[in-house]
Design goal:
The chain is an alpha/beta fold. It has helices at about 10-20, 60-65, 65-80, 85-95, 100, 120-130, 175-180, 215-225, 245-250, 280-285, 290-295; strands at about 25-30, 110-115, 140, 145-150, 160, 205, 230-235, 255-260, 270-275. The termini are far apart.
Amino acid sequence: MSGAQTQSTNMAEFQQLLRSSKNIIAVCGAGLSAASGIPTFRGAGGMWRKYDAMSLATPEAFAQNPSLVWQFYHYRRESAGKAEPNAAHTALALLSIPSQRKGVAPDATFSIITQNVDGLSVKAMDKVLEKHSNKGLSPLMEMHGRIFDVQCTSKWCKRVEYNTSSPICPALAGTEDAVAAGSLDLDIPVADLPRCSKCKALARPGVVWFGEQPKELDTIAKLVKAADLCLVVGTSSTVYPAAQYAEMVQEHGGKVAVFNLERSAGDTEADFLFLGPCEKTLPEALGLAFAVESVGRKE
């Protein structure tokens, strides 16, 4: 990022900026879902003693060992299926509702650009919409796909379907326990791995892997170009192209507010920096803490 003057941690000052903004985007990463129990897989953790999780998220890894990759993604599917949105997801969902946004950013548009594949932002939207109309609902772009999408590997078919089955196939049942223990030695025959429901060819997780093009890039480029405020939520800003969006907003005169648990790459250039759990800092900074609480409250 570049172009920032004095960095602020003042929420009241940020809320003044929020009220005067016209086009707001939120660029979200794995830290957004951390409080929901979704592992980030980055850095040293104890879960992966034998395999680098990031190296499994490639077409080459799947071609070499589809059994290993499917065990990894089965674990992630099971984790996402059990997870619930946290307060940060809910705050962003509320900001997506015109009637709720009116009180904090009355003249602004808002869009969510998420790198997460866990579907928790969508689940948060659904919960919010139980109490509010979806008229004028802001767009949500899942640029790296969805963990519950299953894609056929046949070049003649390429069918993509949404599948939340648990387990997705009998052979993967229980393998999530081995993954959690850091052991992925079970060699499942390819014939027993998930298959396309249409042509029966081998299926793969329908997420965007390293080396593949993210989704909706043209739409995202237009939103970034128009944005005068970028909220960076729970991302270390290391994976491109999302890592460059905040800097692009600043380059055309917009402002950037970072919400992260700890310091991250480039945040010294942010206009606002709010460190701490984003499920606490984000609702407060957006002035939506009470509204977030009301979403989870039973009538």
